[in-house]
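From the pipeline queue, job 12 of 40. The input is one protein chain; the requested action is below.

Action: predict structure.
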Amino acid sequence: MSLRFGSRRVRGRIIWRPTACSNGSKTSSKVPPAWQTARAVASTPTAEKVLFPGALNSEFTNTLKFLTPSTNKAIPTYRVMDQSGRVLDKEVGVDTGEEEALALYKNMVCLSIMDLLMFEAQRQGRLSFYMVSAGEEGIAVGSASALSPADVIFCQYRESGVYMQRGFTLDDFMNQLFSNRKDAGLGRNMPVHYGSKKLNIHTISSTLATQIPHTAGAAYALKLQNMQQPDVPPRIAVCYFGEGAASEGDFHAALNIAATRQVPAIFICRNNGYAISTPTSDQYRGDGIASRGAGYGIDTLRVDGNDIFAVRRATKEARRLALENGGKPVLIEMMAYRVGHHSTSDDSFAYRQRVEVEDWKRRDNPITRLRKWLEGRNLWDEDKERELRSRQRKEILAAFDRAEKEKKPAIKHAFEDVWEHMTEEQKMHVEELKDILHRYPKEYDVEQHEGGVASLDELLQPKR
């Protein structure tokens, strides 16, 4: 199969997209869907391009030459400002007001402080598990700030910044981490597997890449909804995943479905260099994840994830494209470096040099880059930085203390939300659990749960 690419420059960047043209010499201004075109063509004796349904518009050649990816230039990486915080195109600017930039900066700082404190809390045995976002704060906070609150989001497990930017409070984070009675998930998920119906963010799943086909399906539903409800502002589905998840079959199936159904979705890949302990050099041989978008016929862009202004502008434009002509998918590969360990269960220095990590910390990261921009406009200084960090640290620790003191969810929740009504088999299980808890009171500390054993009796009472 031969791929030819066209490009369209949008405000100083290039979005790569497959070229669609007719059999004549002029490019068609409006190309019908591929399934319609494939059924309409017929080969002619003088055709200069392939008209087979499986590979339209490929020019015939009598030269035998294989495509050699290593000889092609790498897809460029879009950025707005350099590592020193200087805007590269003064005429275009940053598309972000000063007050909004300050708010984004404060959210990124808050996220980094929370990550540090929760990592230490896990090491103290007060939390069972945690994952930090160090080095990737700009991707999560920046992209979330450019979306509509009504857009439906599917995260992986390193998108705490998406939740924070959307309005997930410190208490919401801490209640989930401790799985206490105020946890929206009622203690059914392991730590950092947040979810919020109010914020239109689906609950995180540990299983790698499952959220990608979920996004394609949700986007198809939203496409139908957008068509049926023209008076309601259109919505899109947004998916976050790492480059390691892109090695799963779910990634390929999802992108193919999204492309063939032309659904309004943005697929955001956080390429941070490592899939747990596997570096990208052992994950793929091609040009990152962005090169795969073209293969599926999807508009694609690669972005500097340390540049929050580039992340925001790319996401805004991707959302516009996703809603264009009824909907289509867009893939954005956001480049970053995972400064922290994969999780509290990982020691990354077993597979990478400490000096490599320290070099990235010192050389470039999204927080320091935005701070340099703010300082260059006299919006920030060391005194404000010190006051911000001190205040946010106190607020995080206060929320931590409140959540740690709360009781665990009622035991009855272990049986609820499975069937609309309790089955006879479930009631037998409840009775059996009650018997065990009564017979071995020293083995099970049920008083830490709201309502104790008595909460199980509520399940056995007849419904009125």
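Job complete. Residues 1-7, 19-28 have pLDDT under 50 and may be disordered.
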